Amino acid sequence: MESTYRVVMMKPIDKVAVVLSNSIPAGTHVAVTCQEHTFEVNLKDTIEFGHKFAVVPIQKGEDILKYGEVIGAAVRDIDAGEHVHVHNLEGKRGRGDKVVNG
Amino acid sequence: MGKFWGYRRPDGRVGVRNHVLILPTITCATQAAKQITELVQGTVSFIHQHGCAQVGVDYEQTFRTYVGLGANPNVYGVIVMGLGCETHQARSIAGEIAKTGKPVEVVSIQDHGGTLMTIAQGAKIAAQMVQDASAMMRELCDFSELIVGTECGGSDACSGLSANPAVGVVSDMIVDHGGTAILAETTELIGAEHLLANRAVDDKVAKRVYEVIQAMENRAILMGVDIRTGNPSPGNIKGGLSSLEEKSLGAAAKAGSRPLQELIDYGQVPTKKGLVSMDTPGHDIEQLTGMVAGGAQVVLFTSGRGTPTGSPIAPVIKIATNSGMFERMRDNMDLNAGTIIEGVETIDSVGKRIFAEIGSVASGKLTKAEILKQHDFGLWRIGPTF
């Protein structure tokens, strides 16, 4: 009963959608609608409440958008339906660890 | 709508509480100050580790914070309590607070013959001050006299979808009623600065937004650390937030949609009405303290993971972003915005509900944090002590 799951995608240009109901098991087919766009996604991972999944394939190094804004970059290729979180998304700001000291 | 019952102070400002504050200017006086609050009903105080061996910007910031807390209109009168030898002299701080016209007294442990004599002296003054305070009547005041602080802590993925946008609606309503709403948490504006700068009233304020946020980001870069080791926190990450930018975009929703009038320093009182931003860290208690020192009489605090936080001086209205946490932490949370996630209520209707609650709380209704005596204090420090 996929209709019992609540999913929100903020802007049509976003690469991710957020699960707002109890976790959705891997293998579930979800139709995500944002304004006039609908994305048909097969979940590759179980997605917990409050967590995100990719609605489209994302390439390594590509910016990931939510709220229509950049929330970080993909550290590897991400398939549609994959869980998007700290394991495959890295913030780009406040990254003193990436500054090479001369 | 738009009116509340408050206490008019000699400087014209309006309080929503009528506390007598025992203000320890130095760590060494905090225990004695706390003991006075146990003896005398109607007094409040807080524990901290500051007031000595601070220099430069830290000296100024600590001084400004102490003065601001004493001057906050929710405080009827103040007993400034020092040890005697500390950097932040009780008498200098009392002198600044006295400019508001409210009753201010000084007690000092080294001058009064030790802890017990100081507690006796302080309690005696406090008892009289509380009785004088209790004779004050509330009068009908306008929302234009309110400074409302906004804060989010223990954020989850719902924060940016429910409670924060609802607080954004409230922020707009406060501004439209002629009052002041404070946005803070500079750390949690990293990645959303362009959205805020675009709303600045002029180029000067816009430039300051970028400067302040760049300075905060540079602290992480100078330390050679990944800011994510501290923010988003483990709880934020568990709640679904993946990066600081993602958290920031949700946090900035608290600022509503009105123009940004100014960007003020930590603990500084706003010089303009409308939406203002204060340079504070994301640390909940430190930013709460900064906003209350800046004169906020009421604070709105949204949380996804839940929080017990409160202030000794200002009521903190805590708003849950999701119904699950609201049910689990009813002891701590005042309102639930999780109804937005469930599609039961709109962002706008929850905003109106929060606005009405501000009126009730400002008129005397106690918040959960007040009932539980959650008297937190945290000071933002920039450098080391010497």
From TrEMBL, chain A:
UniProt entry keywords in alphabetical sequence: Hydrolase, Lyase
Q: Name one GO molecular function term.
A: hydrolase activity
Domain named SAF: which ranges? 15-90
User: Which protein, by its recorded name, is this?
Assistant: UxaA family hydrolase
UniProt keyword Lyase, yes or no: yes
Family matches, as Pfam families: SAF
TrEMBL record, chain B:
| Pfam family for this entry, one | GD_AH_second
The D-galactarate/Altronate dehydratase C-terminal domain, residue ranges: 144-384
Keyword terms of this UniProt record: Hydrolase, Lyase
An example of a GO molecular function for this protein is: hydrolase activity
Q: Does the keyword Cytoplasm apply?
A: no
Entry annotated with the keyword Iron: no
Database matches in InterPro entries: GD_AH_C, GD_AH_second, UxaA_altronate/galactarate_dh
Enumerate the spans annotated as D-galactarate/Altronate dehydratase second domain: 6-133
Q: Which family does it belong to?
A: Belongs to the UxaA family.
Known PANTHER family for this protein? ALTRONATE DEHYDRATASE (PTHR30536:SF5), ALTRONATE/GALACTARATE DEHYDRATASE (PTHR30536)
Q: What is this protein called?
A: UxaA family hydrolase
Q: Which organism is it from?
A: Fodinisporobacter ferrooxydans
